[in-house]
Amino acid sequence: MTPSRMIEQQEWMADRDLRAIFAALQASGDPEPALLCVGGCVRDALMDRPVVDVDLATVHPPHIVTARLAAAGINLLQIGIAHGTVVARFGRKLFQITTLRVDVETDGRHATVAYTDDWTADASRRDFTINALYADLDGNLFDPLGGIPDVQAPQVRFIGDPKARIEEDALRILRFFRFHAQFDLPALDAPGLAACRQQLDQLLNLSGERVREELFKILMTPATGWMRKHIEYIDLFQALFPAETRPEVGFTLPFIVAREDALDMRDPLRRLAMLTPDPDVAAAAATRLNLSKAEGARLKSMAASPPGMTPKLYPHTRKLRLYALGVEAWQDAVILSWARAESAAAECSDFEVSPEVDWLELLRFPEVWPVPAFPLKGSDVRALGVVEGPDIGRHLAAVENWWMIRDFRPDHAACVAKLKWRMHWRGLRRLFGGM
Question: Could you tell me the fold of the domain covering 1-155?
Answer without folding.
Answer: Beta Polymerase; domain 2 (3.30.460)
